[in-house]
Structure prediction request, 534 residues.
Amino acid sequence: MLAVADDLHIMNPLVAEAVKARDPEPLKKIAIRCQDAGVVAMDINLGPLGKNGEEIITFAIETVQMHFSGRLMLDSLQPEVLAAGIRVCKTPPIINGFSLEEARLSTILPLAAAHDSEIVGFLVDEKGTIPVQVEERLTVASRLVAKAKDAGVSAEKVIIDPVLVPLSWQNGTEYNRELLRTIQILDQLFEKPVRTMAGLSNLTSGSPGCFVRERVESAFIFMLAAAKLDYILMNTSRRSNLNALCLSQLLLGNKVFTWQEVADNVK
Amino acid sequence: MLAVADDLHIMNPLVAEAVKARDPEPLKKIAIRCQDAGVVAMDINLGPLGKNGEEIITFAIETVQMHFSGRLMLDSLQPEVLAAGIRVCKTPPIINGFSLEEARLSTILPLAAAHDSEIVGFLVDEKGTIPVQVEERLTVASRLVAKAKDAGVSAEKVIIDPVLVPLSWQNGTEYNRELLRTIQILDQLFEKPVRTMAGLSNLTSGSPGCFVRERVESAFIFMLAAAKLDYILMNTSRRSNLNALCLSQLLLGNKVFTWQEVADNVK
Prediction:
């Protein structure tokens, strides 16, 4: 399991301020921290952008890629913003993302085909609903991959995101159990295994404090690693998240395990 | 996932001393702690016992069941010791356990049939080898259940233990990955789902210190819970283990999730 940072998000007041003022410094700091943390990609989510959207995404990407050498993931519902972002990326970005909802199918998915991009596919149906049960989730996954193929995007380019919901939802634990099960078996559904991603930050929305949130996020990192998730989208400014990911990699990875390495890395 | 305590083990010097002196006090203390911790069963492992074996197991069980109301799991390779233990248990114990090894098939498994007991089946082949790959593990599981049926023990009475090996084994992480995968899919192998158990303490043998061991054991508790393990056999005197189990139950259990309950229980 590899980390994708969701740190560059418009909900972060520092990011919002920097974007408004076109001040590169806060974005530079985040990019350098992500580079140092060894994340494979950075998600860039600037929320809905007005008439300067194309200029703003260009500013953000040009700033970030001066200091971060990994992949970029462009997170937007606005096709013109995504198109502007794709044009300015030095290495091909990942588009985040589409679902079975008509607007996304007709405007976001064609961009992936046109630019031969990888794209995240959310397990969300036509009506915008996240299915609960594994069977429905697998049906949506099949249909997502079929829609992608129809649009000219091969299955290998699709990264399935089964959508972690807030724990505080009424049947949040049932969603969790079914989500883990979905990730565990999704690689048997297609001829070639598809990759998977899950966004961790949504899970703990409404949590009453930092310590509790850290414990719950760490626990889920271990659970998702055990389910063989490929990419975890998370707040990488939280040291506890990076520690849990590192420990998962030491316990389940391909390297020879040594206790010394655990002692050196686990704080 | 529910806890089985492995605290009453002859490798614990307090237990060894108490058994030697027939001193009930240390065993009573362990039993009371397990009762308070809410574990569903206590594993009793007194190692190889000499000519007083039947008397010693009787002493231990009679002491424990005065203070612990859950199930007992009798962990021995000596059929006469197990038989004496079964006779003195107030509620039917679980026998721990058999494998495809001839000695265990011919002496331990028949006890389960004779006493209509539940029994743990280790995923260990005829030669005493723990298979690495999922496919071989599932083959051994099928053969274990078939052997049990032949001996008059139905599949519902068998609890499969895929055997966690020390992380320090040369390909320890590969064993771990395949073990988790085995637990994830084992319930699809049989007509009715079989239950599963894993022993955590073996995993961290050789660890360089208490803090590192606690972190690794907690991580594995989350991973095993995500794989839908039924019973985790572990050291329940470690508060971190009970905390991780409790958090797993809050995140994946059937109760409605509340942040308050996490805040109250996670230390």
